[in-house]
Amino acid sequence: MGLLRLLVLAVLASEPRVAGGAETVGNSSEGLLEFYIGKFRYFKLNRPSPEDAILRHISSNASFLIFQIHSQYQNTTISFSKTLLHNTSGTGTDRGLVFILRPEQSMCTWHLETLDAEPVQNVAIPLTYSERDPVPGGCNLEFDLDIDPNIYLEYNFFETTIKFAPANLGYARGTNPLPCDIGTGRDSRWRLLYDVYQYFLPENDLTQEGLLKHLQRMAEVPQVKASAIKVVTLTANDRTSVSFSSLRGQGVIYNVIVRDPLLNTSAAYVPAHTYACSFEAKEGNCSSLRRVSTKVFFTLFALLGLFICFFGHRFWKTELFFIGFIFMGFFFYILITRLTLLTYDVRLILTAVAGSVGGILLVAAWWRFGILLFCMLCVGLVLGFLISSVTFFTPLGNLKIFQDDGVFWVTFSCVAVLIPVVFMGCLRILNILTCGFIGSYSVVLASDSYLYTSLSYITLNVLKRALNVDFHRAFTNVPFQTNDFIILAVWGMLAVSGITLQIRRERGRPFFPPHPYKLWKRERERRVTNVLDPSYHIPPLRERLCGQLTQIKELFRKEQPAGERTPLLL
């Protein structure tokens, strides 16, 4: 049997056509991994023992087939033969090959291996398509494979970008494919449309079993349409590249379905997945994304925000410190991130310091000048920023018009400025609403430091757009699952409770406290002129300090011996 297997592989290696697998006969499947059309199969690959696989009983109606293999983060190599060439093999976590079938061919084989030291768990499936179906990657000019059905994925902290090769029209067995770049009429590949789909894994699910299970919903056209979200439809004139906002630690699967609107047929590319993080990194891997510094910063921020949510209007100066902290901290973080190469922890510490300075300056401005409108403008702009962020967090933010930075920032600023303008006639209500919504949202941000929630991307997407010049092209879809519903309910409950409590408690009280500097000045003048006031007789500050120092010196003075110190008189 071993000799027979070697003979089969030798025949495969000598096959000159690389667009499809070679046909085998008889019982040559002995010792090979056997697959069936449309059936997923789990198996493990080991570095010392590569595998050869076989598919039999291919229908005569099939014109081509796509074999795809998936793993979580360890690379797997798939090839037409044991001889690995750049245009006949692919390596990665989500890879596939197109087999162009010859007349009368009913069997295909391929070679699988991995260079990873650890065993790799895989799932694979072969899918067949007819001559009427478009060929994914059939007009590839960018990547290595002659016909490339793969989706190539790149990510960084800000965005995840997928790229794929254009498709070609289908054709029958034994015939030549249509030219890709001759003519742009209805009889050419330029009539094809590309639907880009996005599928979110369950939040906080980093398991291998979960990924391989959900990948099965993204391999075939009907399952993709039923399970995933269609993000955008591209024409043959558009670039075959789409960007998304990176969701670190959140599993996402992408796929593209190419449609032929004239024949009403379609075919699916090989799906690709990402967590926007590395499983093998020593620091900041997918299992430990949340830094200690982030947890400390947002936990303290949430404690202050929770206090503001329920008592902010009563403790006016504390609320001003909170608002000033947000204002200065946000803009300072953008500035040092764009202009310096400091590490994240250093930037976070400097942001905390700068935010504290901003809070102190706003409190000092109120204490000295007492300009209520200026303070309420800052308060209203912070609430407007949150409302504007929520607006663009909805599907409205994915409209093509807002991919222009100028349009986006002008619209965003107008919405933010509109809030203090609308509430200019009822400043106390504006202040209480800001305390309730902004204070409670700080709890949402703190929750994201411990447990993933998509609600943190309400403001994080705006921050990403301010930091990265390419983020304008990214779609900002996020999953909305059980954790998000719970945290949204908590956010709403805290906001409503805080607003209701403050409105009831402040009923019948002055809208805002008086000017602190005027009160201090009036009190000082009263003390100077009123002799009967006990505070009038308080010594100046300098004398009081000297007296305190004298008392401290007395504590360290050596005790004098008791007894007579003068000589006795005779």
- Structural class, please? alpha+beta
CATH architecture term of the largest domain: Sandwich
Contiguous uncertain segments of 5+ residues: 1-29
How many helices? The count is 13
CATH class type of the largest domain: Mainly Beta
What is the end-to-end distance? 136 Å
The count of strands amounts to: 18
How many domains, as an integer?
2
Which range best describes the helical content: under 10%, 10-25%, 25-40%, 40-55%, 55-70% or over 70%? 25-40%
Strand content: 15-25%
pLDDT averaged residue by residue: 87
Strand order of the largest sheet: 1-3-8-5-6
Radius of gyration: 35 Å
> Largest beta sheet, briefly?
5 strands, mixed
The CATH homology group name of the largest domain: Immunoglobulins
What would you call the shape?
elongated
CATH topology of the largest domain: Immunoglobulin-like
Search tags:
transmembrane; alpha+beta; 18 strands; disordered N terminus; five-stranded antiparallel β-sheet; 2 domains; five-stranded mixed β-sheet; Immunoglobulin-like; 570 residues
Explain briefly what this protein structure is.
The chain crosses the membrane at residues 296-313, 320-336, 348-367, 374-394, 406-423, 430-452, 485-503. It holds the Pfam family Ig_TM7SF3_N. With 570 residues, this protein is of the alpha+beta class.
